[in-house]
Amino acid sequence: MVEEEAKSLPMELSEKGGVENNGFVQNEAFDVKETNTSSREEMPKTCIVDVDPAATEGLALKPYAGMPKEVLLKFSSQARYRVTREILFWLIIAAALILVCATIAIIALSPRCLDWWQASPIYQIYPRSFKDSNMDGNGDLKGIQEKLDHITYLNIRTIWITSFYKSPLKDLGYGAEDFYDIDPMFGSMSDFDNLLAAIHDRGLKVIMDLIPNHTSDKHRWFQLSRNRTGKYTDYYIWQDCMQAAGLVTPPNNWVSVFGNSSWQFDDVRKQCYFHQFGKDQPDLNFRNLAVQQEIHDIIKFWLGKGIDGFSFSALKFLLEATHLRDEPQVNKSQNPVTIAAYSQLYHDYTTTQVGMHDIIRSFRQTMNQFSSEPGRYRFMGSDGYEDIEATMMYYGTTFIQEADFPFNFNLINMKNLSGNSIFEAVNLWMKNMPAGKWPNWAVGSPNAARISSRIGKEYVNVMNMLLLTLPGTPVTYYGEEIGMENTVSENVSEEHINSDPVVTSPEKSPMQWDGEVNAGFTEGNSSWLPVNSDYRSVNVEIQMTWSNSTLNLYRELTLLRNSELPIHRGWMCYVWNDSNVFVYVRELDGLDRVFMMVLNFGQESTIDLKAIVPSLPSEAIIRLSTNFSNAGKAVNTKLIKTEMGEGLVLEYKTAKPVHTMEAFQGNCFVAEKACYSSAFNLLYVNC
Question: SUPFAM superfamilies of this UniProt entry (predicted)?
Answer without folding.
Answer: (Trans)glycosidases
